[in-house]
Design a protein that fits this description.
Protein name: DNA polymerase III subunit delta
Strand content: 5-15%
EC number: 2.7.7.7
Catalytic activity: DNA(n) + a 2'-deoxyribonucleoside 5'-triphosphate = DNA(n+1) + diphosphate
Shape: globular
Helix content: 55-70%
CATH topology of the largest domain: Zinc Finger, Delta Prime, domain 3
Number of helices: 14
Organism: Pseudomonas savastanoi pv. phaseolicola (Pseudomonas syringae pv. phaseolicola)
Number of strands: 4
Structural class: mainly alpha
CATH architecture of the largest domain: Up-down Bundle
Keywords: DNA replication, DNA-directed DNA polymerase, Nucleotidyltransferase, Transferase
Radius of gyration: 24 Å
Length: about 280
């Protein structure tokens, strides 16, 4: 709050959701006699039923001078609808593909989604949001470049994927970010390939995927699924786990060389690795 405001804002965060004995006593004492010039904001991960029945929980929930607000997390399946509602509140209308692309980009992070929508407000033409608008909004971010890498890998563009990987390395993108992006695709491919090998139609495989596969990525995923067997995708996922150990210093080897090898194998080709 402003330095010249009449009231101060004091924020207290309790990640565990439990203040402990001394903390509980302090909270009850404060709720009984709150400071007139201070607004206390308490953030908890979850205040379950048992906690609400405690003396300190009742002081927070039922106190005469307190306000209890429960915010439920947005499920991954509900995220596109949440994004569409926020876009509407911002005076924007978006195609379904654009909404799904935003959802895929933010990975369930509501703050990131809200920030993306704020950027889109500045770029939208006549309030209309398309896939191209979303791509343009994030085209200058390393996160989008990482998604470009995964698209190249899924499409079997091994040489292009290697060039992108070297570009990301030159830009200072950390190995955990790149591994996260590749592992995300590997998990999806391993799960979908297993279903596909059991005779589940591809359209049903896509519709049941989590996170959802948006329409414009389905050709890429289809192409990748035809490239390797379910067993092979699972093996590549294990390779990704070994790279994670390398990044953490728990296994020998260069994470960058291993990422290059993984990208090539995912793309279905073997090329000479770039010099470290």
């Amino acid at each position: 709050m402003s330095l010249f405001a009449e009231r101060r804002l004091l924020e207290l965060r309790l990640p565990s959701g439990k203040p402990g004995d001394k903390g509980a006593a302090a909270l009850m004492e404060y709720c009984a006699r709150p400071a007139e010039d201070t607004l206390l904001l308490i953030s908890l991960s979850k205040l379950d039923g048992s906690a609400q029945k405690t003396k300190w929980g009742k002081a927070l929930v039922e106190g005469a001078q307190t306000q209890f607000v429960q915010i439920w997390p947005v499920d991954i399946g509900q995220l596109p609808q949440w994004i569409r509602q926020r876009l509407s509140q911002a005076g924007l209308a978006a195609t379904q593909d654009a909404v799904e692309l935003i959802a895929a980009r933010v990975e369930g992070n509501l703050l990131a989604a809200a920030q993306e929508i704020e950027k889109l407000k500045l770029m939208a033409e006549e309030g209309q949001i398309t896939v191209e608008t979303v791509q343009a909004a994030v085209a200058d971010s390393a996160r989008f470049d990482v998604f470009g890498l995964t698209d190249a890998v899924l499409n079997g563009e091994a040489a292009h994927a290697l060039r992108m990987l070297e570009g990301l390395r030159g830009e200072g993108v950390e190995t955990p970010v790149i591994l996260w992006a590749l592992t995300r695709e590997l998990r999806s491919l391993a799960n979908m390939s297993q279903q596909f090998s059991q005779g589940v139609p591809l359209d049903k495989v896509f519709s049941s995927a989590r996170p959802p596969i948006w329409d414009k990525r389905k050709p890429l995923m289809s192409k990748a699924l035809q490239r390797h067997s379910a067993k092979r995708w699972s093996q590549l996922l294990m390779d990704a786990q070994r790279i994670d150990a390398q990044i953490k210093g728990q296994a020998a080897g260069s994470p960058w060389s291993s990422l290059s090898r993984l990208a090539l194998l995912m793309a279905g080709q073997r090329l000479a690795l770039p010099a470290e």
